[in-house]
Design goal:
With 194 residues, this protein is of the alpha+beta class. The chain is built from nine helices and eight strands.
Amino acid sequence: MVEELQKLKQLVTSIRPLPEEDWEAFSSAWTRHVVKRKEPITLAGDVEDYLYFVVDGVQRVYYFDDQDREATLVFTYQPSFGGVLDSLMLQQPSRYYYETLTPSVFLRVPFLELQRFMQAMPAIESMIREGLSYNLSGLLERLVELQCYSSEERFRKLLQRSPHILQLVPHKYLANYLGIDPTNFSKLLNKVRI
């Protein structure tokens, strides 16, 4: 788990470096968690209990309504944080599902531990707040793309942001994420030079 914690430290440091004593305390609370392919991690209606750090694998957060419509909202893969963050931070029932698309390995920390660290160590609270702010900024950018860009523009933007995603995520989920019919997604794959 030493190597996995080192990857976590690299991500944390890229957001906001922590004093070494804060890092030592923070890193001691994380445990390893392994999940099989296509397994739910968080269900709608459950309160998210953990902040996840993705060590390996690909996951998605999605919404499913009472009319059988599904919307893929976010993909997570190494090295990133994962989980249903609004449910975690607000400690309210999730409106979303978090599932693995591939076998996945995580480090995870319980919310109560995370909250204790944020209350006791201002550097950790600042790092978490800054990380959430980056996530919010990315979601706002994605909303603009969904509302203002054509299918091809959304596809190109995704490839600019994450060129490797075509190899990581099944295309039916990418099409859903982009709000594109799967047939049109296939046409874009053939049309757009990657």
